[in-house]
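Why Phosphate-specific transport system accessory protein PhoU? Reviewers of the renewal asked for a concrete example.
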Amino acid sequence: MLRTKFEEELDKLHNQFYSMGTEVLAQLNKSVRAFVSHDRDLAKEVIEADVIINEFETKLEKKSLEIIALQQPVSNDLRTVITVLKASSDIERIGDHASSISKATIRMKGEERIPLVEEQINLMGKAVKHMVEDALNAYITSDDVKAYEIAAHDEVIDNYYREIQTLAVEEIKKTPDAAFAGKEYFQVLMYLERIGDYARNLCEWIVYLKTGKIIEL
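Here is what the prediction returned.
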């Protein structure tokens, strides 16, 4: 394969990965919106869309392995393929967690809820969404400096996680009938915190793509 053709294949790989990331970002946004607005129909849309994300990952894995097997890329080219192969797995997990948040929305139908806690979950969800979006943009531009900055933002997500947990415990004491909702709040908080971790993982892959160094941010 001519070099130009090979570069086109790598560009397609990048573009497919970004398309997968954009789809996951949209589902994450919908899942949080459905949870705080109690929109079960929107939640079902997210759950049904999970198959699309899985198909993206399968296609990316297949294409990456084909390139490795047939073209035997080296150096920067190999890093590009490995990055997509690994990072797509992290993106797929974000999609899984978005689906799990939507399942929590459906389970909570008719249950006593705590608006104050849900307001904070909404803020955390927005912060997580922005972190994922920024990480995807840094990937597209191969901006390893930006990747470091974005990864540091995970501390903000962790703070939300701890603070909202504490708030939820306090509010459940005041409203015992919301105990079931409390259990779901803790689950959703965990999903959002893990999504932040996967966004940080993506930042680590950006640094690897740019420098060849495998580091922990």
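Residues 3-37 form the longest helix (35 residues). This is the kind of structural detail the renewal will allow us to pursue systematically.
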